[in-house]
Design a protein that fits this description.
The strands form 6 sheets. A 7-stranded mixed sheet has the order 3-2-1-4-5-7-6, with helices on both faces. Strands 10-9-8-11-12-13 form a 6-stranded parallel sheet, covered by helices on one side. A 6-stranded parallel sheet has the order 16-15-14-17-18-19, sandwiched between helices. α1 runs antiparallel to α2, α20 packs across α25 and α37 packs antiparallel against α38. The chain has 38 helices and 29 strands. It is an alpha/beta fold.
Length: 989
């Protein structure tokens, strides 16, 4: 129902009430009208996607799009609860370990406090499920979800679980504070700082009762609610005086007072915190530090290597960051020789001479109880677990590793063998991205299934899998004008030329196939006549064959682009080349990648980035803000099984195995071309994205922000080791359904260390190939079909690919049947050839011979009176940052808050528009209909959606799964998947 009609209904109900006096009716109507006007003012404040909080301690935070209760506009202005702001901005000195927020509502204070205290674990509670969902979404948007644990109810006895920790309690629970904040029930409250809003309007003498309880244990400051000054905000100047007041009005019935209670016995040193409620217990060998001994060997940390790998750069960056930013003054080196110990100490002294270094030898590993944890620069913690176990010292210290590649033979076996190795709940393997954690859990699930089948269900003790990204030293990537001038002169790059940069190992089979990048650059050059383009590859080739293959591919596919190669192993080149360029590009397509550090380095260098929507890249770059994430398409689970069998039996080497599986990954060349062209034509956009990315890298990925996450995690392990039998919760909600669909494991038995990569790593790509996708032969392929198939990028693994005759037959069918669906193509071939046909399609698409349509054009109709808080408005904002969807919003109202990547067509919406536009859009959403559907908003308009879907491309099940996922309703998502999947297959066959 339109907002205007709802307003009139409320007023009519008030007027018709026989329980209210005329005075009460007048007051109630005024309040309803004031709230309605306040909501309208909030919409004006949100125009041009300006959702950042304007002022106050949370300035710069992305504000909420939905409010669980109370006002909206003051939270965007930053005036909300302005009376307590001076206290909040002065609390940095308290360095909290834990923040407890009962009554979190939509998460305004939860997220704001998490941003103020990035090293603290924040616990948010609310009885309202919609408030908890809104809090989670706000945390995701502000990228602090990993820091926050959201629960339903917090009771007084739970305070004891945090006894001894440096804790802030922030409480606003509408009068229930009298029941909750009672030191007689929870003595731990005496050592905690407390900020509480008291509600005498709900509970008589509430303020006095709380004050009397805390007077002896805390220093109290009473804070009264005062007036707000609209004159502090220029954007309110053009409003009428009444509107100015309503913009800062907080909808209060009367003024509630706050109490700031600073504990007189606040802990003086940080005590390790856990990710769950766990009371502290005494350890056999207590350690008060939040550190770890570093297992040191040069190969794990040094980047001065002829074969520079990602793990070397990551290890070097971690150790230097650790030396600089760890909070303890003590360093512990776990090394097998005096030479390595001396190298460690010398390195540490050069970076931070104030540190004290101790050497722990393997034969004296019992000394590891002093730091409390042993850190390994790899994921294989099995051997160290056995070493610890043989000496009966499992409770003396934790063991912590970190993931790099997860599909090497040794790594897969190590993960599977963790089920029989003596690892403990207080050990950990750090996962550098969400996809990596999902793949490791996939291995665990397969091994658990096998052991249960063979030996029956039993106890499984496994390490924690926390998610902590890799980091960078931002200072090393600061722009160097002198280096830029020297490099551009050396490479003959003109001032107005646009230089693109790729950094990393130059390997088409084990890192990133450059073919899509080459082709897209050529097409961008053709669309930007008069602009001279350069491509600089900074890295190293492992042999001459790969080097010749790169040069040959560049000459064949991008002759209009000047091609340069520089040695990325050279120290000066490695750091200075960033300054010489204008755009960074890395279209990773290889399953050996797990995080991908170079996009973060590029952002730190101030470059806009064009990257594939792939694995860890998804976690670092915001599409449309820091650059562009290019849609990736992968083959379905099962397509890579034959390759895994050949790898497992020794018929294929690891690097060949990585290469052949990457042939089943398609990076959208058309979207890459569009991104390149946009950045070439818009130097101001390059600057804007580069600056946004640099700020993002410094605040989220500098080692100064990452090392405290390591220390907090080691502290969590210490708390578990201290006596808890319950592991901490390390799960982070993934914002996507896996591959945009529900995937059921194959019915045949899986060997945990030999799972098909397209199954094991199915979450890496944006989507998997679906029957409803349509295939088009490219009118202008990068070069002749047969020449492409004879290129070195393909021939090295041709024996593992489908037979040439089948590839030719697939190509011929596409030529004869323009815009055929994948389902139609399958029906032309015998059933037993389906997997090879799928592999053939992915191969042809990868090299630009054909194109697989997957970009979904979505139109959302929004009624001008239903914009505030509407579900369609949320959908538009959510999918606008996804490179898989091209979203346009039709609405007469012009002051919508939408991401810049969403088109806004300001036009009146009428029913006939759906029919008129159905030939252009793949999916049309009629927002007013959706709004009437309640919580399960997808069910009612299903038939309308299907009837409005273009006859050329059926609606995407993955898209609907995503919408259902916004409501955390997996059963509904699966149901939608089945309906639309059947519908798509029926229409295409």
């Amino acid at each position: 129902m339109p907002q205007q009609s709802l307003l009139l209904n409320k007023i009519e109900n008030i007027l018709n009430s026989d329980k209210m006096s005329d005075t009460a009716k007048s007051y109630s109507m005024l309040r309803v009208l004031a709230k309605h006007r306040s909501k309208g003012l909030a919409n004006q404040l949100l125009k041009d996607d300006q959702r950042e909080v304007r002022s106050g301690p949370f300035k710069g935070m992305k504000g909420p799009l939905e409010i669980a209760e109370g006002c909206f506009a003051p939270k965007i202005l930053g005036t909300y609860e302005q009376d307590i702001h001076p206290i909040l901005t002065n609390l940095e000195r308290r360095a909290y370990d834990v923040i407890i927020n009962p009554g979190c509502a939509e998460g305004y204070f939860t997220v704001g406090l998490a941003r103020l205290f990035p090293a603290a674990q924040v616990y948010a509670y609310d009885l309202n499920p919609k408030a908890r969902s809104a809090c989670q979404r706000l945390a995701e948007e502000n990228e602090v979800l990993a820091q926050i644990i959201i629960g339903e109810e917090f009771t007084p006895e739970l305070f004891q679980d945090f006894a001894g920790k440096k804790c802030l309690v922030f409480c606003d629970i509408e009068g229930a504070e009298v029941e909750l904040l009672d030191p007689s029930k929870a003595p731990a409250l005496n050592t905690m700082d407390i900020m509480v809003e008291t509600h005498d309007v709900f509970v008589k003498n509430c303020h006095q009762t709380i004050s009397e309880r805390l007077a002896s244990s805390h220093k109290l400051i009473e804070i009264s609610t005062g007036a707000r000054n609209p004159g502090d905000f220029d954007e309110l100047d053009d409003l009428e005086h009444l509107d100015q007041l309503l913009a800062t009005w907080e909808w209060r019935l009367n003024g509630n007072a706050w109490i700031w209670a600073e504990s007189r016995t606040f802990p003086s040193t940080a005590v390790s915190r856990s990710a769950q409620h766990m009371p502290p217990r005494q350890m056999d060998s207590p350690s008060t530090t939040q550190t770890a001994a570093i297992a040191f060997m040069s190969d794990g940390y040094r980047s001065e290597s002829d074969k520079l790998m990602g793990r070397h750069a990551a290890g070097e960056g971690f150790l230097e960051g650790f030396f600089r930013h760890q909070s303890s003054t003590d360093l512990y080196c776990y090394a097998g020789s005096q030479k390595e110990a001396d190298e460690f100490q010398q390195w540490a002294t050069e970076i931070n001479p104030e540190k004290n270094t101790s050497w722990i030898q393997p034969q004296n590993h019992q000394q590891l109880s002093r730091p409390g944890c042993l850190y390994l620069p790899a994921s294989g913690i099995n051997d160290q677990a056995w070493h610890r176990h043989r000496h009966g010292e499992s409770r003396d210290y934790s063991i912590c590793g970190v993931t790099h590649t997860t599909i090497s033979d040794r790594t897969l076996h190590n993960f599977a063998d963790l089920f029989v190795a003596p690892v403990q709940h207080w050990d950990a393997v750090i996962c550098t991205s969400r996809c990596v954690r999902e793949s490791v859990q996939h291995i665990f699930d397969a091994q658990d299934d096998y052991l249960s089948e063979r030996f029956g269900k039993g106890k499984r003790t496994l390490p924690q899998l926390p998610i902590i990204p890799l980091g960078v030293d931002s200072q090393k990537f600061q722009h160097n004008p002198k280096a830029r001038a020297e490099w551009r002169k050396q490479l003959n790059i003109g001032e107005d030329d646009v230089a693109f940069l790729f950094v990393g190992r130059l390997s088409f089979h084990a890192k990133a196939n450059p073919w899509p990048m080459f082709v897209a650059l050529q097409r961008a050059a053709e669309q930007c006549p008069g602009k001279k383009l350069h491509l600089i590859l900074s890295g190293w080739f492992s042999n001459e064959h790969i080097e010749r293959s790169f040069a040959r591919a560049a000459a064949a596919t991008c002759p209009s682009v000047t091609y340069h190669v520089v040695d990325g192993r050279d120290a000066d080149t490695r750091w200075d080349i960033w300054s010489a360029t204008d755009v960074f590009c890395s279209l990773a397509d290889n399953y050996q990648e797990t995080f991908g550090l170079v996009p973060v380095e590029a952002m730190a260098a101030g470059l806009p980035v064009v990257i594939s929507d792939w694995d860890g890249y998804k976690d670092t770059v915001t599409h449309g803000e820091h650059g562009f994430r290019i849609h990736s398409l992968a083959a379905n689970p099962g397509a890579g099984e034959a390759y895994m069998d050949q790898f497992a039996t020794g018929q294929a080497r690891y690097d060949i195995f990585c290469g052949v599986t990457s042939q089943l990954v398609n990076i959208d060349i058309h979207a890459t071309t569009e991104a390149f062209t946009t950045l070439i034509k818009n130097p101001d956009l390059r600057t804007k994205m580069g600056q946004a990315g640099q700020a993002h890298a410094m605040s989220h990925f500098d080692w100064q922000a990452i090392i405290p996450q390591y220390e907090a995690m080691w502290s969590d392990l210490q708390s578990i080791r201290a006596g808890s039998s319950v592991p901490p919760s390390t799960s982070i909600t993934h914002p996507w359904p896996s591959c945009g669909k529900s995937y059921s494991p194959p019915t045949h038995r899986r060997q945990a260390s030999r799972i098909d990569t397209s199954d094991l790593l199915s979450c890496y790509a944006s989507r998997c190939l679906e029957p409803y996708h349509r295939v088009h032969l490219e009118k202008t392929p990068p070069t002749d079909y047969q020449q492409i198939l004879s290129h070195g990028f393909i021939t090295y693994c041709s024996e593992l690919l489908p037979e040439q005759s089948l590839i030719d037959a697939t190509y011929q069918f596409i030529s004869d049947h323009p815009s055929a669906s994948v389902a139609e193509i399958y029906t032309h071939f015998p059933t037993d050839q389906k997997l090879d046909v799928e592999r053939s399609l992915m191969l042809l698409a990868k090299y630009g011979i054909c194109r697989i349509d997957h970009l979904k054009k979505v139109a959302i109709f929004i009624d001008k009176d239903a914009t505030n808080g509407s579900f369609a408005h949320q959908i538009a904002s959510s999918v606008g940052g996804d490179p898989a969807f091209d979203v346009a919003v039709y609405c007469e109202t012009s002051d919508l808050s939408l991401p810049s990547s969403i088109s806004h067509i300001t036009t009146p919406v009428y029913p006939e528009m759906a029919e008129q536009l159905s030939g252009y859009y793949d999916l049309i959403i009629d927002a007013p209909d959706w709004l009437q559907c309640g919580e399960h908003c997808l069910q009612l308009p299903m038939s309308d959606i299907l009837s409005h879907t273009s006859t050329a491309i059926p609606a995407s099940p993955g898209y609907h799964s995503y919408l259902a996922h916004l409501y955390r309703d997996s059963q509904l998502a699966n149901h939608i998947d089945r309906i639309l999947h059947d519908h798509a297959c029926a229409r295409t066959t």
